[in-house]
Amino acid sequence: PKIENVARFTKIFIDWGIPYPHFSVLLTGYTEVIGGLLLIAGLGTRIASIPLIIDMAVATATVQIKQASGFGGFVALDDPLYMLSFLWLMVSGPGLVSVDYLIKRRAGPRFGLADPRLGKVQLPETV
């Protein structure tokens, strides 16, 4: 929605007191779209998680925390949960069903990158 209606979200960002509202709308919108697509594909998962963590941290600190009333209100917020999910993805990395895994599986032996999961999971040679 931020990308589809930049003018509307720019006004919302102005009301929230976010500096450089037009730029901030574009930055957050494209960060969420591109980062989300990368996470869905499992491409650059650890790197794509970093800007999404920052995006959710800024959203929580500038907007969401002001709307929360007490600890119960904070626990009910979505953005901190997203931030923790992205942090988990950054630490754990992608799973077996990801582009990152396929790249590591194909290029890993060439560059001396061993994957301990390959010994436990029997996968076909061609995918």
Give the arrangement of secondary structure elements.
Blueprint: H1 6-16, H2 21-41, H3 45-67, H4 70-75, H5 79-92, H6 99-111, H7 117-120
Helix pairs in contact: 1-2, 2-3, 3-5
Describe the structure.
With 127 residues, the protein is an all-alpha fold. The chain contains 7 helices and no strands. The chain has helices at residues 6-16, 21-41, 45-67, 70-75, 79-92, 99-111, 117-120. Helix 2 (21-41) crosses helix 3. The radius of gyration is 19 Å and the shape is elongated. 14% of the residues are buried. The model has no long low-confidence stretch (mean pLDDT 85).
Task: Offer a quick outline of the entry.
The protein contains seven helices and no strands. The protein is mainly α and 127 residues long.
Largest sheet: none
Helical stretch tally? 7
Low-pLDDT segments: none
Query: What is the string of helix and strand elements?
Result: HHHHHHH
Beta-strand content estimate: under 5%
Q: Which assembly state applies to the chains in this document? A: single chain
Q: Would you tell me the overall average pLDDT? A: 85
Radius of gyration: 19 Å
Percent in helix = over 70%
Task: Find the count of extended strands (DSSP E, 2+ residues).
Answer: 0
Coarse structural class: mainly alpha
What is the 3D shape?
elongated
Name some characteristics of this structure:
single chain; 127 residues; mainly alpha; 7 helices; elongated
